[in-house]
């Protein structure tokens, strides 16, 4: 009889057979050759540049953006030459030379292949300083032209205007100091000029005017001129441009009043005063001939409405004091008829051959203003109506600038109020409606 296996024994046998089968399959798999996925081919290495050349012959060279300086001046500082073999290092060195001058805000460059393919075309891009100022010399021991010629030799970028940077001012002051052999300072100023400028002058303080002497004064006594200048010039720091302005505003009108409208002051000399601290200024005068008044005209208003106010007589020596008085009379008349913003100027038309001067008073009337409302302050309900009734300038009528004060003066003269201490008038202009409101103040 065959032996019979139990369930437990059968299960163990199956398990062992399964493990053996797995081991056989793993061994077979390890013995078989391995198959790998093919790799992608590596990309080709970049091709080498055909040439490693970094510099080429310079065929053309231009400048863009310059206004105060010429292209020749800029290229002289840059130092590059046509035909020179250049590249980025040479252009950068040239740019630094231009930047080192301190007169440019920025400097750039670029170069491109020339049309013939044999060289390059170069260009400098210049950005000049935003503000440039003219230069002036004062109290130097040499002529201005000599200083300018010297600066041209020192600075290839010398120009009529320079920037007011500290580096530029210090450099120019040092050069001028070297030329005139005395310390020179520089400053940005508008002394003696309506516009800003750069002034170079000796570093020592300016002297003050101690005395003014006039020579060859013609029909006007020299004492009269000295007295006129005493109040405006004595003790003032001397500078010829400012002193000449004083001559034009103080002395010239004295000659204009005598018809000598071509008076000039060709020579001004200075020397140290011996008895006081300061300098003596000697002014040479050329009075010139006497001119007669020619034609008189009034512009800007009805030519027939104001001629009598001028009161100027043609054919006699012109007197510009009288012309000014006529100008003021015309202005007063305009103001009394509502043209409270009227202005005027005197124009001269000089005829040197005939020794005559035609005078035109050009008036700008502006809008005509009317009387607005009237306010009265510090009067009771009984006296205010009396004053309001006396007021004669009615709303809507042309406003008279003289009337408010004239009215208050009349009230005082008539003695309408007892113990009236003070009065005053205020006006308020309404630009939109072209009216003038008046407020009267009474203090008892």
CATH C-level of the largest domain: Alpha Beta
Number of helices: 11
Report the oligomer: single chain
CATH topology of the largest domain: Ubiquitin-like (UB roll)
Q: How many domains make up the coordinates?
A: 5
The second-level CATH architecture of the largest domain is Roll
Q: Radius of gyration over alpha carbons?
A: 47 Å
- What portion of residues belong to β-strands? 25-35%
Tell me the structural class. alpha/beta
- Regions with little confidence, pLDDT below 50 for 5+ residues: 1-50
- Helical content (DSSP H or I, runs of 4+): 25-40%
Report the count of strand segments. 17
* Order of secondary-structure elements: HEHEHEEEHEHEEEHHEEEHHEEEHHEE
User: Quick one: biggest sheet?
Assistant: 4 strands, mixed
Mean pLDDT: 86
Cα shape: elongated
Strand order of the largest sheet: 2-1-4-3
How far apart are the first and last residues' alpha carbons, in Å? 162 Å
């Amino acid at each position: 009889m065959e032996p019979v296996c139990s369930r437990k024994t059968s299960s163990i046998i199956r398990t062992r057979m399964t493990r053996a089968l797995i081991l056989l399959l793993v061994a077979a798999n390890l013995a078989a050759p391995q198959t790998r996925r093919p790799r992608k081919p590596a990309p080709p290495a970049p091709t080498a540049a055909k040439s490693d050349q970094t510099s080429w012959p310079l065929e053309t060279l231009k400048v863009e953006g310059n206004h105060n300086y010429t292209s020749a001046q800029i290229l002289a500082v840059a130092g590059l030459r046509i035909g020179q073999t250049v590249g980025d290092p040479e252009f950068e060195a040239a740019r630094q030379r231009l930047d080192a001058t301190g007169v440019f805000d920025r400097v750039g460059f670029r170069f491109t292949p020339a049309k013939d393919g044999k060289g390059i075309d170069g260009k400098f891009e210049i950005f000049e300083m935003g503000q440039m100022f003219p230069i002036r010399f004062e109290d130097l021991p040499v002529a201005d032209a000599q200083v300018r010629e010297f600066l041209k030799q020192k600075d290839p970028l010398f120009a009529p205007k320079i920037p007011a940077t500290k580096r530029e001012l210090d450099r120019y002051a040092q050069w001028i100091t070297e030329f005139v052999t005395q310390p020179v300072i520089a400053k940005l100023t508008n002394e003696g000029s309506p516009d800003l400028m750069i002034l170079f002058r000796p570093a020592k303080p300016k002297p003050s005017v101690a005395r003014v002497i006039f020579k060859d004064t013609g029909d006007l006594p020299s004492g009269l001129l000295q007295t006129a200048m005493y109040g405006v010039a004595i003790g003032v720091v001397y500078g010829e441009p400012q002193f000449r302005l004083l001559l034009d505003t103080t002395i010239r009108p004295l000659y204009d009043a005598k018809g000598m409208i071509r008076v000039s002051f060709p020579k001004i000399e200075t020397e140290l005063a011996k008895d006081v601290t300061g300098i003596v200024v000697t002014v040479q005068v050329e009075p010139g001939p006497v001119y007669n008044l020619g034609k008189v005209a009034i512009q800007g208003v009805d030519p027939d409405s104001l001629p009598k106010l001028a009161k100027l007589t043609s054919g006699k020596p012109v007197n510009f004091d009288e012309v000014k008085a006529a100008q003021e009379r015309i202005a007063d008349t305009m103001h009394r008829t509502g043209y409270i913003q009227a202005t005027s100027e005197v124009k001269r038309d000089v005829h040197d051959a005939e020794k005559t001067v035609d005078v035109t008073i050009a008036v700008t009337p502006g809008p005509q203003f009317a009387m607005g409302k009237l306010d009265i302050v510090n009067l009771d309900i009984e006296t205010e109506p009396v004053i309001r009734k006396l007021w004669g300038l009615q709303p809507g009528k042309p406003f008279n600038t003289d009337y408010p004060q004239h009215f208050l003066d009349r009230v005082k003269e008539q003695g309408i109020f007892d113990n009236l201490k003070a009065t005053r008038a205020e006006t308020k202009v309404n630009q939109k409606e072209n009216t003038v409101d008046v407020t009267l103040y009474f203090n008892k």
